[in-house]
Amino acid sequence: MPVLCVRPGIQSFGTETALPSSERAPLSRDAILEAAIEYVDTHGLNALTMRRLGEVLGVEAMSIYHHVNGREDLLEGIVDRIVAGVRVPPYEPLGPANGWQTFLQHVAHGVRQIAVDHPALFPLVATRPPSAPWLRPPLRSLDLVEDFLAGLVARGVDDDDAVEVYKVFASFLLGHLLLEVAEQGASTAPDGEPLDEGDAPVGNGQSKLSLDDHPTILRLAPRLQQHDVEAEFEKSIEALLDRIDAELSQ
What we know:
Largest sheet: 3 strands, antiparallel
Number of domains: 2
Strand content: under 5%
């Protein structure tokens, strides 16, 4: 592959720019995920391949597989890293004067910021299979859901209502934000570009989902696992009609 000098010490591989070896940080999983996120932000998800990612990092594509266990692991790592950026406000500084409404507004804006900062990646956050069927995108990590449910309960919402709010809230965010990024040109179709190249292993080991460090989820697990799609749809449409009626009646 031809090498074109961009400026002294920096080489460009095709359209990708790699740092010289003297300026490169040691290759790590964090560095790979960060580079992948930045690449997709600029070029889109379908442009991402291991070979191109290796060029950006200044390494052979095969070197990436020492830190990432194939395509699925890379995509899961990207999603986990992005979702980890959402911060659920603690009981303080909001305090008792600001109840569950303010709490939900803070969380909603935090999740929306993911879509604003990474429109090309948000569909991946929204559509990747979660680690448990009752984890609803985009609120899909155990830590995030634990803090979300515990935050509602701490603000006076009982267990049954907290689970109901989680389901409705996640559905609203998912629909609205997917529409928002689609209007910005992001593809909401499933990713189809193969990332694995060079006969590297592609398997992603399955791990058991432990709830030991998530006491609120553990307590509410039976409620979270109850799933009635038709009933949830009817409740949501009724709530929407009530809001529209209130707006039109003003």
